Amino acid sequence: MLRRIILGSFFGLLLAWAEASPVYITFPSDVDWQVRKSPHFSVLYPKGQDRLATRTLQAAERAHVILVPIFPDGPDHTWIVLGDWQDATNGYSLDLPFPHIVIYALPPSAHGELASLGDWLDSMVLHEYVHTRHLYPARGLWKAMRFLFGSWALPNAIQPQHFHEGMAVLFETEKAKGGRANSAYFKMFQRMAVVEKKWGTSEFVSRDRMDGVASLWPQGASAYFFGGVFHKDLLRRKGEKGLTELYQSYASNWPGFYNGPLNEVYGKGHAEIWDETFARTRKESEVEIAKIRKEGVARLRYLTDSKFHKWDVRVSPSKRYIAYRSADPDKLSAFEVYDVKKRTVVRRVETPHGGSEGFCWGKNGRGDQWLFVRPVSDGDRSLFSVYRYDLSRDQMDRVWVDGATSVHVHQLDCDSQTDTVLLYQESGGKGKVVEARFSDPLSAKSGRVWEIPEGSWVTSLLFGASHWIALRNGPRTDLYRWDAGVSAPKRVVSADAHVFSLHATANGQILTVADFDGRLEPWRFLPSKKQFQKKLTLLGGINAVASRGDFAVMSSYRHGGFDIAVAKLKEGPVRKVSNEDASPPTRERASISAAENYSAWSTILPRMWVPNFLVVPNGMQIGVWIPAFDIAQKHEYQIVAGYDTRGKPFGEISYNYRFGGNYNLGASANFWPSYIQSTRSFFDVWGGNVALSWSMFSLNWRLGPAYRKVEASGLGPSQKSVGVEASVTKSFGFKYRADGIAPVAGTSISLAHTQYLSLFGSTDSHFRSVFSIRQYWESFWLNNHVFMFQLQAGFAQGTALYNSFFEGGGELLFYLGRVSFLSRGFFPGRFLGREIATFNVEYLFPLFRIERGWGLTPVFLKTVHVGLVGDVLTRATGLRHRNDRYTYSNDELFKKFYFSAGVELKTEWEIFHYLPAQFRVGLYHGFDPTGETLYLNFGLLAGL
Fold first, then answer.
1. What is 296-572's CATH topology?
2. pTM across the whole model
3. Which fold has domain 673-943?
4. What count of other Cβ atoms lies within 10 Å of the Cβ of residue 665?
5. What is the pLDDT of residue 14?
């Protein structure tokens, strides 16, 4: 999970957990943390969120009581981090370097699969704690490895994703209210696959694709859906005892040999169990389908046929257009506008969705206007904010409320003029509904505010003379009416169903989506009678509804995803509801400590070390990597040490302290013997630096003192340099497709300068500067055909060549960052100089989308793509220094150019079920007598 592995090259095989940037550090640095504790957990939370922290600990202790009998091997103590810097409901669990759970504690989207959770916080904690205890056991040789190497020896971690997620989905369903395994959402997937005769066939899914692929529905939900079906069947066969025996057996198992434990416990392998499961569940769905058809299934007319994900449907004020959110792996996420008269999509408004919902369409003197919710990324944060889109001007702008950017917004609705808006905001366990009026198109001032009850969440808002609010309270939905001039809304009814997507019809009725009958269908709410009336019976289900005259406009599911459909509303059965309070559950309460200020000492000590084996020209490097960070990610350090069989030890220690608004104070010290490939020279280099990093003016800055010492060698006398390092970087405009081979747009620019001074014993006064700019453009003729242009230049002066130089040429090893000064048709390290510049261009395009494996073998081929590449390099040795002992060719910069070109074939894989990998074969030609006629290079990179 935490490091990059590089395997293989033209020169040999490398298996290394190599030192690199800590990609696992993701928390914001400016959070003021506090801690509360219970007998088995500690919760780390932002100051002021004490109530949420207490609720989380109570949920965790309940989960502990439930799961210990099923997973007897587990950690004595587990950390839980509550994050409010991501507005999309999510979480994860890791047992390394220490057991911890991270929960982005926000209620789920009303239209998605997580809406099936009863008490969303209890269910999320239970789900993630299943992972914690499931991953923990280590038996047999794995137990000895954990004793020797530490916490990274996790045999149960190396399993298909649908094993992990299926187990957690099973227990979130069986041991808590609600849950996905029995949800209307997941049953809809199964039912429609049976209707279209895809259930149990490779057209829907094969065993190698059950973890999910981007191009096939249900994409990222696959591991949860299929895993839930599989584990529900295992539970039916031998109960919880069988699951305990199974995962204890896996704790001594080796990657890829998954049938052994299944045969041991259930007497059958994965394929045979699935065949029986598909047959049994097909019969169950056929019975359900026959029952639904007896009710009289509505005839739907589909307007679109692109499948995948659509939601948030709205009809324009003129009734001519239908707009909705769309997420398709072959396209960037967008709002699509369908013209009813032309019967086609006439506009796509590209914008990130990120699970957000909330969208209204009005019209005023400026023309048609949208208000909608979308995520906004700022450093380590991604928060939902309100935007206004002017259709006539094709202009999108962020909305401000009470003088600040609107954040943590999860639902909205507005009046027909888009002059007043109703917002639902939630963060840190506290939610509120706000009525705000615009003083200008982009600035609103809040009026009435309603603080919603703790533990509940808003599924839908309906703006009107009296506003309506759908509020989930556990598995129930309460409908509130907020009359004009009243400070707080009044509850009208409480329904035993998930109710959302409230929509006012032309005759003043309220159309909504509800799952009273176990399916997501359109219902009409009748406030005066306190009842709901079904308007359409569906075989599948819907996740959004709007009305257009007597017709419902829906995002309707059919096998493969959602499409926009219309159907005439009909009179159906009535479901009466009450306004009675639900009986609160009786729960034991664990003892919770008082709040404490956070201290890093309890989690900062290292808990694992990873061996390093690196094959290099004429030798091997053998070493260890020791990573560590505290639970708040304020402190992070790494130790790398080892021995080079060519006769040199090496080592580095680095430390980073993160604080304030994305500030980072780092220090490092190292001893790295350097090897110049072109001269086969080997010399010793000591180094160290202290640097402050921060963000300002949308730029990333770095500044600090640096020390460097080169020991005397055959290249020249000892050199000592003391100076200052500075750099600035900027990245913007990056866009990605779900199945993209590269960014389809984006620019990155960087400038780094090091100035060494004649102070504190410095041998020379010299400097070193590097500039880089990279640009991605997608072709206008085909999706995912991408051009990459890169210009890099380096300039150094004032010291001996061996003390400060740049190398250019091809590659020894393939790695994601590639060689800085790349000229692929020449031997690695062919060019050496104080001044160097390269221009690289690549045309990248997909060749095949494979997305197949071999059963459960932990190797999965995703895509094959091609790159046509070209490089131009120019360099110069620069001004000669008194300590330069050797004569080097002295080409003039920008006078002599070296050209190369070639083709690269790249294959993208997933190994061990989680680890992205890329294998590349490159064939290049250098257009110069010093170049290679045909230079073959290949390698494998794997990393997160």
1. Neuraminidase (2.120.10)
2. 0.93
3. Porin (2.40.160)
4. 16
5. 30
